[in-house]
Amino acid sequence: MYIEVKGIQKKFGKKVALDNVSFGVDKGEYVVLLGPTGAGKTTLLRIIAGLENPTQGRVYVDGCDVTALEPEERNITYLSQTYALFPHMSILENVMFARIVKGFDKADARKVAEEFLMLTHLIERKNAYPAEMSGGMMQRVALARALASNSQLMLFDEPLRALDAKLRIMLRSELRKIAKDFKITVIHVTHDEDEAMEMGDRIIVLRRGKIIQDAKPSEIYLNPKTPFVANFVGGGNFFVFYVEKNTGNELILKDAHGRMLTLKKNTGMAEGTKVLVCVRAEHVALSREEVPNAFYGEIRHIHITDRFYEIDFRTEREYLHVKIPLVEKLDFEEGMQCWAHIRNAICFDATDLNIVDELEVE
Amino acid sequence: MLRVENVSKRYGNIWALKNVQMSIEEGEYVAIIGPSGCGKTTLIKIISGIEKPTSGRIFIQGKDVTALSPSERKFGYVFQNIALFPHMPARENIAYPLKVRNTDKNTLKKIVNELGELFGLGNYMDFYPRELPMGTQQSCGIARALATQHKLMLLDEPLSALDARVRKKLRVELRKFMKDFGVTVLHVTHDQEEALAVADKLCVMRSGEIIEIGKASQIYQQPRTLFGAFFLGEINFLDARIVEKEGKVYAETREGDVLEINSQYNEMRGERVILAIRPENVRAGDKNTIHAKFERTIFFGAYNVHIFEYGSTQIKMVSYNLDEKFNIGKEILLALSPEKILVYRIPPEGMVGAISLEKK
Questions:
Q1: Of 3.30.70.20, 3.30.420.10, 3.40.50.300, 3.90.105.10, which CATH number belongs to B2-226?
Q2: B264 with B356: CB under 8 angstroms?
Q3: HSE-up of A141 (CA within 13 Å, CB side)?
Q4: Which of A55, A93, A156, B130 is the most exposed place for a label (fewest CB within 10 A)?
Q5: pLDDT tens by residue, B68-105
Q6: Which residues of chain B have pLDDT under 50?
Q7: Model confidence over A66-84: pLDDT tens digits?
Q8: pTM listed for this prediction
Q9: Does the pLDDT value for residue A362 go beyond 80?
Q10: Residues with Cβ < 8 Å from A288, sequence gap 6 or more?
Q11: What is the CATH number of domain B234-355?
């Protein structure tokens, strides 16, 4: 294990910002810390960087306890949300500087700086000054400068946040590739689930100072540990049902309005258990004929995104979000009455759950 | 409802807008998208009256408003930087446009309560802006714009300051509210996904010009320009040449695969071209194929993106079947159906210039 964070607690006055946070990162791994604003992600990154002292707990890098070390003694590059570029230096000089302070000669610094400015799509602007740049450009300069520092360990705090959507999406795969090519270990903070899914070898979901789940992206999506994780990563339609019957391989559910749902699930949930059901939008299909496990309603709105037809479906009780692959022939129109067929779902025991609070994303 | 006629705007030597023409019908929801510096913000500022055009005219409800000040133009406005009055609770913020127009107390109360309920502000109505989560603050900003009761809403990057998750949630609601109120909307954003999610009609802008205008699905499936194809969603580009064999026209890729294409491209025979195909239209198959090497898979939950190497080009394929798997390094035949292949002439500025996101 290259980095080990053990039992970190951080209090600001009485407020607990981080509560017993522990995880490890292997050398060369790309780990994403994902969570809503205020989850404690930045505080955790600052503690690893040495910019903040934990109230309790230790940080180890490469087997050494670095908890008491100053930031500059840690050989970690921390890219914060405030870019702090040198205003009197050109873009190129700003990036070169990161390399020169690490003892590389000027020719090397120039070569590497130009390479990273190319990768961040800024090479044509290399002679410009920070004051002439937009926020998105400055963020890319700061990213290039961080990459040029030759550190083996990088901490990125929302490195793509200020960028326009198109460039942000393009830079995801490019940034990950750089990290992998240069064998850099990265901890990357974001609130963007798509960014986390695309970039992370592993995703650590943080909420209110606690780690909720730490797993591969596919595991987080397919087996979310809590309704919060299901909602924050991927989202879906949430319903409250009660177990009517559990046959061992089938879970028969009924809601307060008498609607039934049968799911192929092997759970230990007893009859009468309150269940929070999460139905991903892509697990709803539309049908003109009545089928089991379906709610009747009306198609209110259809629009396309770059992968799906996205449909707002109104039942007599709620809105359902439905996603149909763009490659399928869509035989439905706005205003049409039909059935929304639930093909799959994730179930959570809701006995002791404050559902509204659990699904809060801010 | 809104008509922009030959609007140009010059700052010094730079033309921020060049002869822009567009119109919005009553009740329509139109999104303008484009990269930073494309002129979209200048355009919405000119429509609102914050900026004056160098030439051209703006009509709102048939009336020439070019010479009018913003307050005389009658529209609701939502900013990117949530501009609530910090010293007023949510309720008073929403009531403000009604107050300045001397709306009687009972009507005011009724409208404000309705808006609060619709936007789910319930308990938040008596909170000050700083006490509200960001998403709720912007909901409040949108409610305030609607409280003006104007028929035209101008939204300038209304969701850009919010977290991804909140943004996704609010954009669905935003469209619903606007449609429920029957207002006409012009919404400016750099986020193509957001634009697709909210709008009936899209305008894609680049370098001060509108380069695509039409229904979202139409622009997505049949973009007129290379930049439109590139900017809206993801797309694969292949270098090719149009060749003729036995009276039929084909595209021969730089890598040597020969592909059937739609006959509408017949007139390009002999030319060097760019083929474009959306990742969801690429599939493993044996008809009309290219030979590509499988590299890796990215899991996105509802679908996988498989990445292939094709010569020096990268090909992305979207698969909705999560069980479809390939072996790393293995050569796979990828089928590109002829009716999904878009063909573009190589533009004078070259491929890199044609899709550059930076201002020219």
A1: 3.40.50.300
A2: no
A3: 30
A4: B130
A5: 999 889 898 888 877 889 999 999 999 999 998 888 89
A6: none
A7: 999 999 888 899 998 887 8
A8: 0.90
A9: no
A10: A331, A338, A339
A11: 2.40.50.140
B→A interface, C-beta within 8 Å:
35-37, 133-136, 163-166, 168-169, 172, 175-176, 179, 190-194, 196-198, 216-217, 220, 231-234, 278, 280-281, 298-303, 318, 320, 357-358
Assigned CATH for A3-231? 3.40.50.300
Q: Give me the pLDDT at residue B26, please.
A: 94
Q: Where in chain B is the domain with CATH 3.40.50.300?
A: 2-226
Cβ-based contacts of A306 with chain B (< 8 Å) = 192-193, 196, 220, 232-234, 278
Mean pLDDT value across residues A121-149:
90
pLDDT tens-digit series, residues B169-187: 888 888 888 888 899 999 9
Nearest residue, CB atoms, B135 vs list A301, A312, A362:
A362
In A94-201, DSSP assigns E strands to 153-157, 185-190
**Mean pLDDT, chain A, integer:** 94
Please tell us whether the domain made up of A236-358 is placed in CATH 3.40.50.80: no
At B81 the pLDDT is: 77
Q: What is chain A's length? A: 362
DSSP A83: -
Between CA A26 and CA A30 the distance in angstroms is 9
d(CA B37, CA B47): 17
Please list every residue in chain B whose beta carbon sits closer than 8 Å to the beta carbon of residue A221. Answer: 299, 301
| Contact yes or no for B136 and A362 at CB 8 A | yes
pLDDT given at position B359: 62
Q: Which amino acid is at A216?
A: K
Residue type, B125: M
Q: Where are the beta strands (DSSP E) in chain A?
A: 3-12, 15-25, 30-34, 56-61, 64-65, 76-79, 153-157, 185-190, 202-207, 210-215, 237-246, 251-254, 260-263, 274-279, 284-287, 294-304, 308-315, 319-325, 337-342, 346-349
